[in-house]
Amino acid sequence: MKRTTKKSLALLSTAAFALSMLAGCSGGSSGSSAGSDAATADTASESTAASETDATADGPLFSDPVEISMLIPSHASWPFQDDWYVIDMINEETNVDFKITSVDTEGFSEKLNLTMSSGELPDLIYLIGNAAVQQYAPQGAFVNILDHLDEMPNFKAWYEENQAYALNFMSADGGLYQFPEQGVDETNRRGWLYRADVFEELGLEVPTNQDEFYDVLVKLKEAYPDSYPLAFRSFAGQLTQLNMIAPSWGTSFIDTGDNRFLGYDFETGEWTFGPTSPEFKEMLEFYNKLYEEGLLLPNFLTIDTKGWQDVMAASDSFITIDYLSRIDFFNNSMRESDPDFTMAYMAPPSFGENGVNKFAYSAKGVYGFVVSSQTKHLDEVLAYVDWMYSDEAKELLSWGRPGELYEEDAEGNRTWKTYTTAAEMKQDTGLQTFGFYQLYDFGGEMATFTEELRTATEEARQYDLQQQPVLAFTEEEQDVVNTIGTNIQTYVNEQISKFMLGERSFDEWDAYVAEVEALGLDQLKAVHESSYARVLAAQEG
Which end of the chain has the least Cβ crowding within 10 Å, N or C? Predict the structure, then answer.
């Protein structure tokens, strides 16, 4: 097999921005971009008069102009622009004039905390995750949406049909303070990826279990002695990959993105702490073996995204886990110099005695608007967000005006007229970006996919494990999570790294388990149980 040239790596690097993984809605960003302010949020202004929403079907939502201030995250791969197509279109369709403050995702939490401390809140804030809701809603910062259902016919209809989904957004007091988005979750889908061209070259079959997986790695190493057949990348120094790997071993890791430190076993109805389970030990022993035998990239705990990209592009590694969109990312770039280069989706193997051929449900996210309790334009703000839950708005905010940006064939299949990647479309139009949707038609992104990526996306769905519960803690419970949970997470991450790298003997596993339990594991488990009891009660009610 041909090794990738420096020219090929340069091409990949150049394409990295345009073909940036479609995890734009995942909350973080690997790049950096200065926050841009279209204007400073100013809810103290009373210049906007109340406006009736009695416009005709052919007219805008509001008969008179309405000013709405917003604080939104700006993704580094498609930074906010105040002249976006989507903004002009919304203005025309609704008569809303935005006063927008945008902040890069990496600095958004800090900006949000400063804004909340100032007491000068915009009308709308678009939030990634539910942590801020749990922190500030009990203080009365946000409007409880459930108090206004009758004022929002579109949202009410959506809510009544999607209450199970909406439970992921509920707060510990039973209130709903964040408007649930729906559809963007698919942009986060991840899975096993492999070099299909190399497998074909060597006559290798896709592995379905642990033994086959190990044998494939050995054969790849034999064919390419200088390679490390399996590679992971570090997510800002976190062991995030274990959240995706552990379920295939019949266990779980710590998913703080969902405010959850334990995993829920739907069969037994119990919360368990994966990192102290026998299955987790078995998993760590396996990856330690791969590390010791040179089958796993040595710096897998620290390598950044750019470094990992170079490793995969240079054919130094052949199997990985990442966003499915990486299929197009690599193939579109690398085939300019190596037409046979094929990154493809691999169905998840099962591992260990209790493993399953499933993958942790990765197409999930908790995103959406909150309404400031300080807003002086509550009726207008609620009417605007309600409009975003209409079929019309979903269509417009996903595709733009009929026929302007896309073409549609006789069977109803759509293609973008000029855009070949979702990143390019978002950069140019602002469609499907933070703050400019609530219902998201993933078909807009799928229309930029190659047939390989579309097929992979459809195949991956059949291997989804049931989604873990999204928990909302009371103030007292959150204190336990913030203290005991954080201490446990820090200690576990340190010790797991040592086990995987051979710096701590597995003979000390029982001692490690006792050490974790002594940090207050039972208390942490108790708050998960009490929180989830509220979720179950809400479902029954």
Answer: C
